[in-house]
Amino acid sequence: MSEAAHQEHHRPIVVIGAGAVGASSALALASAGHPVLMLDPRGPCGGTSFGNAGGIHIGAIQPFASPGVLWSALKMLADPQGPLLVDWRYLPRSLPWFARFLMHANARQMAAGAAATAAINHTAISAWRVAAAAAGVSDHLHEVGWLKVYDREQDFEAAATERALMRDNGFPFEVLDRAELHELEPALGPTLTHGMLQPGSLFVDNPGRVVHAIAAAAIARGARFRQDEVRSIRLDAEGCLVHTSSGDIQAAKVVVAAGAWSRPLAAQVGYRIPLDTERGYHVMLPTPARSVRRPVLYSRRRFVLCPMEEGLRVTACVEFAGLERGPDYRRIEQLLPFAATLLPGLDQTIQSRWLGFRPSLPDGVPVIDSVADGRVVLAFGHGHLGLTQGPATAAAVLALVQGTPSPFALEPYRANRF
Ligand SMILES: Cc1cc2nc3c(=O)[nH]c(=O)nc-3n(C[C@H](O)[C@H](O)[C@H](O)COP(=O)(O)OP(=O)(O)OC[C@H]3O[C@@H](n4cnc5c(N)ncnc54)[C@H](O)[C@@H]3O)c2cc1C
């Protein structure tokens, strides 16, 4: 039967985007016996899910929109080596996002955002275990936790709110003094004074390979994949008409999981979601002879050292410059001497560079919701935590498609909250 004829007899669920969220959703849907068609012009895991820090970082629940954020953002912007960058030409377009972000930067909404993130993150590890086992990549998940390090008392003190939120929401952590830190990570240099280990987090040593394997596992369970770009979605009586760069597809339902590119697709089904992108970078360096064993976030400069399968990855920066502008690697490259202070003897020869697009909502909480009378599921906006939350989101997507209870309450993730 031709593809068109097949679809006519059996409308698939079309999953738009094959990153951590879309590939995991396709796997969950295909495993439950649904006909699935994944579409992505870049191929599986060609977007942001490829180059992140690999943290299944469940304790990272403090929203960026927190009291005092305006002052600390201004200080970061003023620092020529700071982690925050704004393309002033893009600012007019991002102003509505910033305005909403600042509206959320109060104690009450920060606590609500943290609780919403905690709810999904509490299901993230078990969801990851299931997805990784199905994809045959469990050996790429490491139980090493997430380590944040400090070299100034003031930075450690400034993170008191983060620790309080973790305590209140059931994410254990250990505070380490200098000696304990160096016992845990002997390769780290002598300048560090404090550490905070969140032992419940996992580390994925090759996010690209792992998310690709999840997409392959979905295909092994009957899902189809087509390298294709969705141009528009139109609701019809039996579902949706999906217009792509190579033709039309009649879908029973559509899952919008296109990460930072989801805003126009959601708008076509009536939802104006204030999605923007926080761009982030990585560079790959050769694996050091003496390396760290887990992702290490250096608090003062806000970069992460990630001991990946294929070398040491340094991830950094939050850049507001939209989806179109090309990369500017200067800022992350400037951080490498600081990385060498953290890891003495570090070979700073860059093997590759990467720019990624975090799909960010002003309140720091994704949209996971069923709209248009159940014909469309929106699943995007995971910001700094899309790798962490991909398989957990997929479990909620499956529940929304089937009309069954989600593993976590979906109220905070509604699309109409904006
Ligand atoms: C530097 C950096 C470090 C990070 N570190 C971490 C971390 O340690 N832990 C963590 O949990 N998260 C981390 N993140 C965030 C995480 O990578 C993202 O939240 C996550 O990858 C988003 O997944 P996604 O599936 O929503 O989007 P993506 O992976 O971007 O996938 C979306 C896909 O949709 C496709 N698409 C777009 N438009 C269309 C269209 N019209 N038709 C069809 N397909 C389309 C794209 O090609 C893309 O492949 C980091 C991000 C960055 C940038």
Structure description:
The protein has 418 residues and is an alpha/beta fold. It has two domains: 166 residues, FAD/NAD(P)-binding domain, CATH 3.50.50.60; 187 residues, D-Amino Acid Oxidase, Chain A, domain 2 (2-Layer Sandwich), CATH 3.30.9.10. 33% of the residues lie in helices and 25% in strands. It has 14 helices and 21 strands. Strands 4, 6, 7, 8, 15, 16, 17, 18 and 19 form a nine-stranded mixed beta sheet that branches. β1, α2 and β2 form a beta-alpha-beta unit. α2 packs parallel to α10, α2 runs parallel beside α14 and α6 packs across α14. The N and C termini lie far apart (44 Å).
Topology (SSEs and partners):
Layout: H1 3-9, E1 13-16, H2 20-31, E2 36-39, E3 55-56, H3 69-78, E4 84-86, H4 91-103, H5 107-121, H6 124-135, E5 141-142, E6 146-150, H7 153-158, H8 160-168, E7 174-176, H9 178-184, E8 194-198, E9 202-204, H10 207-220, E10 224-226, E11 230-236, E12 239-244, E13 247-251, E14 253-256, H11 263-268, E15 276-285, E16 296-298, E17 303-308, E18 311-320, H12 330-334, H13 336-342, E19 352-360, E20 367-371, E21 376-380, H14 386-402
Parallel strand pairs: 1-2, 1-14, 2-10, 4-18, 6-16, 14-21
Antiparallel strand pairs: 3-9, 5-9, 6-8, 7-8, 11-12, 12-13, 15-18, 15-19, 16-17, 17-18, 20-21
Flavin-adenine dinucleotide binds next to helix 2, strand 15, strand 19 and helix 14.
Give a short overview:
The protein is of the alpha/beta class and about 425 residues long. It has helices at about 5-10, 20-30, 70-80, 90-105, 105-120, 125-135, 155-160, 160-170, 180-185, 205-220, 265-270, 330-335, 335-340, 385-400, and strands at about 15, 35-40, 55, 85, 140, 145-150, 175, 195-200, 200-205, 225, 230-235, 240-245, 245-250, 255, 275-285, 295-300, 305-310, 310-320, 350-360, 365-370, 375-380.
